[in-house]
Design brief:
Layout lengths: L1 E11 L4 E6 L4 E6 L10 H16 L1 H10 L3 E9 L2 H8 L7 H15 L4 E6 L6 H23 L22
Parallel strand pairs: 1-4, 4-5
Antiparallel strand pairs: 1-2, 2-3
Helix pairs in contact: 1-4
Length: 174
C-alpha cells in the first residue's frame, strides 16, 4: 500500500492568535481568539492545543478531497507543532492536567474519531514551523503599524509615560 501525506503546521501565541499552514495546498489561516490571562500557568499550551484543533477542523474538507482522489493510497495527515508538551499529550505519552485543556483535547479526539485517516502528531523546531513564522510576521506588522500610528501623532518615545515634543519639560537646579 502506498502512502500519501498531508502536512499541516500549527502554532499558538499567548497574545491570542493561532495559525496553521497546510503544505499540501499552501493555504494558511490566522485566527484571533481571546488571549490567555497574562502569566497563566497553561496559557501558551492552551493556545498551542487550540491551534492543533483548528488546523484539523479547518482542513477536514481538504483532507477528505485529497483522500477521495487517492483511491489506492492511504492518506497520512502529519500535524506538526513546536510545542513538545502538546504533541506528547496528543500522542498519549503524557497526561493532560488542566481542565480546560482536557476539554480541548477531548474536542481534538472527537474530530479524530470522525476521520478515517491516519493522523500523526510530530514535534518540530520553532524555526521550521511555518505557522509560527506567520504569527511572527503578523506581530511585526502590528508593531510597525503601532509605531507608524504614534509617529504620525508626534510621539517619538515609547515608554509608560509617553513623551511628545510639545510636552517636554525642563528641570532647573538651584
Amino acid at each position: 500500500m502506498r502512502l500519501s501525506s498531508i502536512t499541516i503546521d500549527a502554532d499558538g501565541s499567548p497574545s491570542g492568535y493561532i495559525a496553521w499552514y497546510n503544505h499540501s495546498t499552501n493555504a494558511s489561516r490566522i485566527r484571533a481568539l481571546r488571549p490567555s490571562i497574562r502569566n497563566d500557568r497553561y496559557g501558551v499550551q492552551r493556545m498551542e492545543m487550540l491551534a492543533i484543533y483548528f488546523a484539523l477542523a479547518d482542513n477536514q474538507r481538504n483532507i477528505r478531497k485529497m483522500a477521495e482522489g487517492q483511491r489506492k493510497k492511504r492518506v497520512v495527515v502529519n500535524i506538526r507543532s513546536d510545542s513538545k508538551t502538546s504533541i506528547e499529550q496528543l500522542q498519549g505519552i503524557s497526561e493532560v492536567r488542566d481542565g480546560l485543556m482536557q476539554r480541548i483535547y477531548a474536542a481534538i479526539r472527537n474530530l479524530l474519531e470522525r476521520m478515517s485517516y491516519m493522523i500523526v502528531f510530530n514535534h518540530l523546531d520553532r524555526t521550521r514551523n511555518i505557522a509560527g513564522l506567520l504569527l511572527e510576521q503578523r506581530r511585526r506588522k502590528e508593531e510597525e503599524r503601532r509605531i507608524a500610528y504614534w509617529s504620525e501623532r508626534g510621539v517619538y518615545a515609547f515608554s509608560p509615560l509617553l513623551v511628545t515634543p510639545s510636552l517636554s519639560c525642563s528641570i532647573s537646579t538651584a
